[in-house]
Amino acid sequence: MQFVCLDLEGVLVPEIWIEVARRTGIGELARTTRDEPDYDRLMRYRLGILAREKIRLADLQGVIAGMGPLAGARAFLDALRERYQVVILSDTFYEFAEPLMRQLGRPTLLCHRLETDAAGLVSNYRLRMPEQKRAAVQALRALNFRVIAAGDSYNDTAMLAAADAGIFFHPPQQIAAQFPQFRVTRTYAELDAAIDAAASSGNSR
Known about the structure:
Blueprint: E1 2-6, H1 16-24, H2 39-53, H3 57-65, H4 73-83, E2 85-93, H5 94-103, E3 108-116, E4 122-126, H6 132-142, E5 146-151, H7 157-162, E6 165-169, H8 173-178, E7 183-185, H9 188-203
Parallel strand pairs: 1-2, 1-5, 2-3, 5-6, 6-7
Antiparallel strand pairs: 3-4
C-alpha cells in the first residue's frame, strides 16, 4: 500500500494569503512560505498585520468562501484517490480550509488551528505539532507504508525529504535550484506521471 501526501496551497488551491492580500488591498499579506521559510516568523508577521488592520476571522473566511480549487485540481485528485491513499498535509488552518475541502470532495486534511479573541480577531495560531508534515510522513513510513510526497515551497521540503519519493509541483525557480534532488513537475499530468513512476519504482523493489 502506498500513500500520496500532498501540500494544499499552490498544489490544489491558490495561495490563500495571496488571495486575501488581493481582495483586501493589503499587499503585505501576499508574503508566503515561498518568501519566508521560517513559518513562525511568517505567521507572527501576518498576525501583526491582521491586528493592525482589525481584520476578523469572519472577514478572512468571507474571502476564502469565494475561492475555488486550481483548474484541474479536483479531477487530478479524484483520479489519484482511485489508485492511492491520499492525505493532504498543509500549514493552513481548519478555520480556513472548510469551503475548499468541500469543493475538493473532502479529502483527508491534517493542518492547524487559529485562535480568536472576543471581538473575532485572530489572536494566535496553534500548530497541531511542530514539523507536522514531516512527522506525518515519518509516521506512515513507520507503519510500513511507502510514501510519495508532493509540494511547492520551503515548508514542504522536510516532507519531501522524509518521503520515499519527493516531487516538486510548480515551485519557484529559486526553491527548485536549492533542492535539486527533488523532481520538478509543472502540470497535473506531469505530477500524475511522476507519482506513478515513483510508485512503480517502489513496487519493483
